[in-house]
Structure formats: structure tokens, C-alpha cells
Amino acid sequence: MTGGDPAPPGALHQPGLYLHVPFCRNLCPYCPYNRVPFDEQAFASYERAVTREIDLCAPSLEGQRFVSLYIGGGTPTVEPEGLLRILRHFQRRFEIAGDICVELHPANMDDRCLELLRDANVTLVSVGVESANDRLLRAIGRSHDGAAALDAVRRAVAAGFQTVNADLMFALPGQTLGDWEADLDAVLGAGVDQLSTYPLFSFPYTELGQSQGARAVRRPPGRLVRAMLAATDRRAASAGLERCAVWSWLRPNRQKFSSITRHHYVGFGPSAASMTGNSFLVNTFDPDAYSRTLPALRPVALSMPVDRRLELAYWLYWRVYELHFDQAGLADLFGPSTGLPLGLRCLIRLAGALGLLERTAGGYRVTTSGAYWIHRIQNEYSLRYITRLWGAGRRTPWPEAVTL
Q1: Strand duo 65-73 + 95-104: pairing
Q2: Which terminus of the chain is less hemmed in, N or C, by CB atoms within 10 Å?
Q3: Which residues of 198-233 are buried (b: 16+ CB within 10 A; e: fewer)?
Q4: What domains are there in the chain, each with its CATH number?
Q5: What phi and psi, each to the nearest 5 degrees, are found at residue 313?
Q6: Which helix (DSSP H) or strand (DSSP E) does residue 91 occupy?
Q7: For residue 18, is pLDDT > 80?
Q8: Do 259 and 101 touch, CB atoms closer than 8 A?
Q9: How would you class 71 by CB atoms within 10 Å of its CB: exposed for 0-12, middle for 13-18, buried for 19 or more?
């Protein structure tokens, strides 16, 4: 990936919009995402810059219909009124025909905040519970306790959003299988529509990774991961949820909350990425550099051309994450005559022979064993990709190049 300011995208296929809010009142030491301490003046500067970036990009996207707006961070609701103003500006400048999704932190989602989100037509929310165990929350540096996290989930459910997702982290320091099962029971008992689970990543550039040293970064033990995922399958099924992705379980007839499975998307804010089909773009990570660049230029720090083969691989990667894919979906995106490259077809045949995939009418489904191994592969992918790209973006506002 190299620095540059590519031409505006052409027509996108069922695209989403993404907004990154980089501010937090408490910086969790394990978090790899681009975030900085909250400051009122810095947020005001960021809000002006985001509005300018929206205005700068809107003419090239005129007539495009967006299927979703996803707002992540950081802590998106660190300044609820400011977020609402940005959200209203998105709605004025773009046709958003689908869900509006917002990440929530238990310490920054009072009833007034939830009311503002509902009034702004936010449909899907995700509460970053991480754990209901006070000992484990202290170990990972969270600013809330288990009771506050569960109360936040219950209040979000009562607020009437279409889907309330709860995030839980597993393979935490000192966490036992019994601890994990207790967390599952507590969150599922709070009435969530969706459960998403993540292992603890010790990225070398995070505060946790730096304290351990890059060489001491440890992947979650395979045996523990397998046992915890199996327990999640059992507990979720007992609560009426079905597995909808490698990391997530969903109540039937509910809309899935997901930040990562849209094929095309346009990102706004520091470190936001855009995937246009022929380009992958990343904004500068530095909030000050981001604000100074606008409105004269787009704040793109890195760009990478995407050819048809890479786009097909990208499409397949996320379809496998969703546990199924078929020829109809491929044809819808790339045209009826498009087929998978030979290398990907060989990989699919090998996965079938190993019991990781099974044939369905018109496509393939990932097996339970396959979901475990995809989980493990994604761990490696996340550590390598995010460490290289995001690590470089955090070190300097305008990297000359990053090798992935």
C-alpha cells in the first residue's frame, strides 16, 4: 500500500458507509483500534472535519444508494449530541436505505443517549460487555464493572432497537471455562438478540503488547479456544440463538449486526478504510492531520489497487466468515459468467476433503470443525494484517508505504 489521493469511486455494489469516532474516555490497554483520549476541543475539530469530508465526497457518490451506516470507534457515543449532528449530516447528504448501526460502551450510554439514537433512526446496537466478571474486567483495564455492563445490555434491549448485540471476550488472562460459561449465561439471560465472541489479541503496538514485549505476544491456546467455542454453541442454542458467523450467534428473524461483511464501503474519519472494488483506501490515523487536510484534500494516507482476482478472494473470505456461499451470490456481484479462479477452486476442494466445507444446493456451508479452523486462521490474519497496517498508521500520519 502506498500514499495517494485516488480518483472518486464509480458505482458501488450494495455499499455501506462507515464512520470512525476515535475518542475514548478510558483507553483499554488491549484495544488495537485507532483511539485517543477524549477532549472537547479535539472532538469539535473532528466534528467539523468529518462534516467537510462528507461534503467533499458526496458529489462523487450522488445517486448511490447505501445499504447501511456503521459507526465504530473508539467510543462513538463519547459525545452523544455531537454524534447526532454528524449522523444527521450523513442522512442529509446520502441516501441510507438500510440499517444504522452503532457500537456502545457500557460507561457511555445513559438513557438520554439511547433515546437520541432511537430518535435518529438507529436500528442496531452493540454493547461492549467483554465480561460480566469484575476480576476479569480489572485484568483487561475496563472502566466498568459486570453489573454496569449487564444493566447496559438490559437498557438497550428495553429501548426497542431491532437488534441488540453483546460482545464478549474469551481466553482472557486467568479466565477458566467455568468463568466463560458464567459470562455466557449472564449475557444471554439479559435478553440479547445476538452474541459475538472474540479472543484477546495482544497486538505488539498496544499498551498490553508493549508491556509484554513483541516476542511475548501469545495466541489463545487452541484447546481452550475449542472448548469455549463449543460451550458457546451449546449455551446459545439453549437460549434460542443460531450461529450466523464464525464469531457470532443470532436469534432467528433478527437482523444481523456486523461491521465487516459489506463488500463495498466508504469510510469517514481518522483511520477509516474504503473498499471501492478497484481500490482499497485508508485515511490518515492522526486526528490532527486528518482535520488539517480537510476540506482542501481527501485525508487518504494509503491506497492499494484491487484487481478482479483480489476482489474475488475478498468476497470469498467474508462469505466463508458468514459460514456459507453460493454461485448466485457470486453472479450477483460479478456477473453470471464469473467463476472462482483455479487456485480458489482447488482450495475449496481441499477444504471439502478435510471436512471443513460441505456441499449445499448451489453452494457450500462451513462445518463446525471448519468454523473452528477459520477462527484460528482469522486470528493469525488479524494479528499480521492489523499489526502491519494499523501499526504503521499509528507511527506516522502519512506512511510512504506498507507491505502487507
Answers
A1: parallel
A2: C
A3: bbbbbbbbbebbeeeeeeebeebeeebbbebbebbb
A4: 16-250 (3.20.20.70), 308-366 (no CATH)
A5: -65, -40
A6: helix 80-93
A7: yes
A8: yes
A9: buried
Cα–Cα distance between 386 and 316 in angstroms, integer?
20
Length of the chain, in residues = 404
Which tens digits make up the pLDDT trace of 193-227?
Answer: 999 998 876 655 555 555 554 344 455 577 888 89
Query: Helix/strand/coil (H, E, C) string of 198-267?
Result: EECCCCCCCHHHHHHCHHHCCCCCHHHHHHHHHHHHHHHHHCCCEECCCCEEECCCCCCCCCCCCCCEEE
Residue type present at position 90: F
DSSP tag of 108: G
Cα dihedral across residues 60, 66, 71, 73: positive or negative: negative
- Within 10 A of 133 (CB to CB), how many other CB atoms are there? 20
Got the DSSP string for 337-362? T----HHHHHHHHHHHHTTSEEEETT
pLDDT tens readout for residues 312-366: 888 888 888 899 988 788 777 777 777 777 887 888 899 999 999 999 988 899 9
Residue 42 sits at the vertex; the CA angle it makes with 41 and 45, to the nearest 5 degrees, is 90
> Beta strand 124-130 with 363-366: parallel, antiparallel or unpaired?
unpaired
What cell numbers appear for 163 in the block? 437488534
Name residue 283's amino acid.
N
Q: Are 244 and 254 in contact (CB under 8 A)?
A: no
Phi, psi of 362 (to 5 degrees): 85, 5
- Is residue 306 within 8 A of residue 5, CB to CB? The reply is no
Report yes or no: 187 and 150 within 8 Å, Cβ to Cβ.
Answer: yes
Spatial distance between the Cα atoms of 19 and 90, rounded to a whole number of angstroms: 10
Long-range CB contacts (< 8 A, 24+ apart) of 199-202?
199/169, 199/170, 199/171, 199/225, 199/379, 200/30, 200/140, 200/169, 200/170, 200/171, 200/172, 200/173, 201/30, 201/32, 201/379, 201/382, 201/383, 202/30
Is residue 190 packed enough to be buried (19+ CB in 10 Å), middle (13-18) or exposed (0-12)? buried
Q: Which of 245, 205, 187, 266 has its CA nearest to residue 35?
A: 205
395 three-state secondary structure: helix
- The three grid cell numbers given for residue 202, joined into one nine-digit string: 495482544
In angstroms, rounded to a whole number, what is the distance separating the alpha carbons of residues 273 and 393?
A: 12
Sequence-distant (6+) residues with CB within 8 A of 254 are 162, 163, 193, 194
